[in-house]
Automatic annotation (TrEMBL):
Gene3D superfamilies linked: Aspartate Aminotransferase, domain 1, Type I PLP-dependent aspartate aminotransferase-like (Major domain)
Family: Belongs to the trans-sulfuration enzymes family.
EC number: 2.5.1.48
Region annotation (Disordered) ranges: 1-23
Entries under PROSITE patterns matching the protein: CYS_MET_METAB_PP
Species classification: Bacteria, Bacillati, Actinomycetota, Actinomycetes, Propionibacteriales
One GO cellular component term: cytoplasm
Keywords tagged on the record: Pyridoxal phosphate, Transferase
InterPro entries the UniProt entry points to: Cys/Met-Metab_PyrdxlP-dep_enz, Cys_met_metab_PP, PyrdxlP-dep_Trfase, PyrdxlP-dep_Trfase_major, PyrdxlP-dep_Trfase_small
Keyword Transcription: no
Molecular function via GO: cystathionine gamma-lyase activity; cystathionine gamma-synthase activity; pyridoxal phosphate binding
Single biological process term from Gene Ontology: cysteine biosynthetic process via cystathionine
Species whose genome carries this gene: Nocardioides jejuensis
Enzyme superclass (EC): transferase
Name of the protein: Cystathionine gamma-synthase
Length: 386
């Protein structure tokens, strides 16, 4: 499909056709894995299609980057070796030592570590703020110094919701850019650039890849000047996605829509089940009317996602027992794959924030609800909680 056609098309069409035309020489419908580091030049500087060296560009990665831009409705997409490599590139491309950023007070642990242990010593200060509270974000901004407002919505693992449109206005009033980590929602459920965000970042390791078989990251931007800065740093720092990883991530992206709908269907059933179970305390899911971010989530997300957190009556030991008793839910970190995962954030994904303002409750269990037969998931939780 031509670029013009894809831009106007619906989400699934963009996910399947964006960024790639069947190969002109062979007609290959799927982008080949270009396992090459360099390219023959037709005379000095005579590049074919602009390809010179695979850190700078590789056709398998170019196809993925085009598809990422298409699904997020951005101007340009960039693929990285991991979500954190994508984040690091944003920080160095869009801030400089002496600048300041506002970050979520329950950021993904690795994001917090990057800000606190890598960017801060480099010279980028940060203030954690509760993003569900727009006034708290406004108060955390340092006029003239704040370069970025960094948003995760829903957050990990407490699934709190930030109002992207309102936060974009607050950031822009202060001359800052709004960055949204869209990993938990995925581009199917939420497209932050259409709500005023300047930069979207993903760990494509999660829903975009979707099969727990590849680690990767993405940045999508809507402004050409920002794109140039990200593109320069992507090449200058070199944390790019390789051709094999790009191929797998691109293959995953094509089925994102159908997978997400099933993730959401199954998560809704799991939430219903947990809400009426006597061994379960609070259930945290943006789709619940009792969730403080329910209204905002309903406004900016197509559905409420596949991540569910809950507190177990009986404290940390009881929560650990549940995590160690499931058979269909696999005990493991990460999320967003077709298989269901269970984890204890306090001891696993969020162990690095223990003792800080970002600490999570010890009786909290997080589920990444997969797309298995839902009755098997419910039976597994029933026996684990019993
Ligand atoms: C996993 C994750 C990241 C980091 O991505 P990697 O691919 O593991 O480097 C960033 N943000 C969120 C919300 C994540 O879940």
């Amino acid at each position: 499909m031509s670029q013009d056609h894809t831009q106007k098309a619906g989400f699934e069409t963009r996910a399947i056709h964006g960024g790639y035309e069947p190969d002109p020489t062979t007609g290959a419908v799927i982008p080949p894995i270009y396992a090459t580091s360099t390219y023959k030049q037709d005379g000095v500087g005579g590049l074919r299609g602009g390809y010179e060296y695979s850190r700078s560009a590789n056709p398998t990665r170019t196809a993925l980057e085009g598809a990422l831009a298409a699904v997020e409705q951005g101007e340009r997409g960039f693929a990285f070796a991991s979500g954190l490599a994508a984040e690091d590139t944003i920080l160095r491309a869009l801030t400089s030592p002496g600048a300041h950023a506002v970050i979520p007070d329950d950021a993904y642990g690795g994001t917090f570590r990057l800000f606190d242990k890598v960017a801060r010593p480099w010279g980028l200060a940060h203030t954690p703020a509760h993003l569900a509270d727009v006034d708290a974000v406004r108060a955390a901004i340092r006029p003239g110094e704040t370069a970025l407002v960094w948003v995760e919505t829903p957050t990990n693992p407490l699934l709190s919701i930030g109002d992207i449109e309102a936060l974009a206005a607050v950031a822009h009033d202060a001359g800052a850019l709004l960055v949204v980590d869209n990993t938990f929602a995925s581009p199917y459920l939420q497209q932050p650039l259409t709500l005023g965000a300047d930069v979207v970042v993903h760990s494509t390791t999660k829903y975009v890849g979707g099969h727990s078989d590849v680690v990767g990251g993405a940045v999508v931007v809507r402004d050409l000047e920002v794109a140039e800065r990200i593109g320069f740093h992507q090449n200058a720092m070199g944390a790019v996605a390789g051709p094999f990883d790009s191929f797998l991530t691109h293959r995953g992206l094509k089925t994102l829509g159908v997978r997400m709908d099933r993730h959401c269907d199954n998560a809704e059933r799991v939430v219903d089940f947990l809400c009426s179970h006597p061994a379960v305390g609070t259930v945290i899911y943006p789709g619940l009317e009792t969730h403080p971010g329910h209204e905002v989530a309903g406004k900016q997300m197509k559905r409420f996602g596949g991540m569910v957190s809950f507190r177990v009556n009986g404290g940390e030991q009881a929560a650990l027992r549940v995590c160690e008793s499931t058979h269909v839910f696999t005990l493991g970190e990460s999320l967003g794959g077709v298989e269901s995962l269970i984890e204890h954030p306090g001891r696993m994904t969020h162990a690095s924030v223990a003792g800080t303002a970002l600490e999570v409750p010890a009786d909290l269990v997080r589920l990444s609800v997969g797309i298995e037969t839902v009755d098997d998931l419910l039976a597994d939780l029933e026996q684990a909680l019993g």
